[in-house]
Amino acid sequence: MYLKKKRPWEIPESEAAPEEAYLGRRRFLRNVGYLSLGGVMLSGLGSNIFGLFDDKGKETGIKVARTPTPVLYPAQRNAKYTLDRPLTDERVAGTYNNFYEFTSDKDVWKHVDKMEVRPWTIEVTGLVEKPRTYDIDELVRLMPLEERLYRLRCVETWAIAVPWTGFPMRDLVALARPLSSAKYIRMTTFMKPLWASGQKPGSGQPWPYTEGLTMEEATNELTLIATGIYGHELPKQHGAPIRLIVPWKYGFKSIKSIVRIEFTDKRPATFWNTISPEVYGFESNIDPDAPHPWSQKMETMLGTGEVRPTLLYNGYGEYVAGIYRKG
Ligand SMILES: Nc1nc2c(c(=O)[nH]1)N[C@H]1C(S)=C(S)[C@@H](COP(=O)(O)O)O[C@H]1N2
Ligand SMILES: [Mo]
Fold first, then answer.
1. Average pLDDT over the chain, rounded to an integer
2. Would you tell me which of 129, 182, 197, 221 could form a disulfide with 178, CB atoms 3.0–4.6 Å apart?
3. Do 76 and 147 form a contact (C-beta atoms < 8 A)?
4. How far, in Å, are 46, 129, 223, 258 from residue 176 at the CA level?
5. Contact call for residues 252 and 242 (beta carbons, < 8 A)
6. Which residues line ligand 1 at a C-beta cut-off of 6 Å?
7. Domain 75-319 adopts which CATH fold?
């Protein structure tokens, strides 16, 4: 499952100067952009999409939209966030996804062609001093992009370990200047039945997908707004062009393809919590011992099939346990 040649992010800090690794990767990605033109012609894709190649020149099957901001990737890795296991193969993480707007199966990547990721705006609104609608390319240039290696754990018990690119959500919160009455943040995904057949009338589901965090959770240092993965922009199946990553909570909290971020004084209704409140709690912190309809004790790494014990807060207790031990 793993590429034989190590990519820069797989080389331990002791083996390579980070600067060299990044230069190498950047050059590599530039080459990829060039090679991909050929890929586009051959595979007959629209000119706004290009396929990614691995470092052996082999097509990965992962496609990324052509945007004005590819030059921002890869971003400098933040060495603070380390993994206790190998990274998941990019091909594996990019071909086994949850994105119910498109399909309830895992082959989301086969169903996303109609989606358009430009133009794309994110409305920041509600109980803030500075409500504003940001164009995605303006926002990514404004925010300090960095790469972070995080684990992501789905409540279905599969897990991945991936390099996200993004910026701390607290930086966006700071820009918005929340009023003291703001207690929660509500996030919303696009509503486009023409792109995503799951959203067609009659689905019986509470579209658009929404999620929420308390202000304290949203401003925790771990909470990331991701715009990239594996050193490039997000492919659509991972939630292009902008999504949430809260690694200590079950994956459904990490809402994809966000169009709206609203500050509110009430705990927001969320997609899965509305469908089944007993199974998908608002908080949904990863906990092997909390009562749940199916066991959360173990998890299976995608790609390798390795089974590991589920970690409380997905192993991120040092950052977040303090939020929940109060009063
Ligand atoms: N809008 C939206 N966001 C979503 C989902 C979804 O169906 N729609 N699925 C969630 C679930 S259940 C998981 S596990 C993660 C999966 O992220 P990945 O496919 O990038 O690994 O996305 C989450 N974000
Ligand atoms: Mo999930």
1. 88
2. 182
3. yes
4. 36, 6, 16, 16
5. no
6. 97-101, 152, 154, 160, 189, 209, 238-239, 251-252, 254-257
7. Sulfite Oxidase; Chain A, domain 2 (3.90.420)
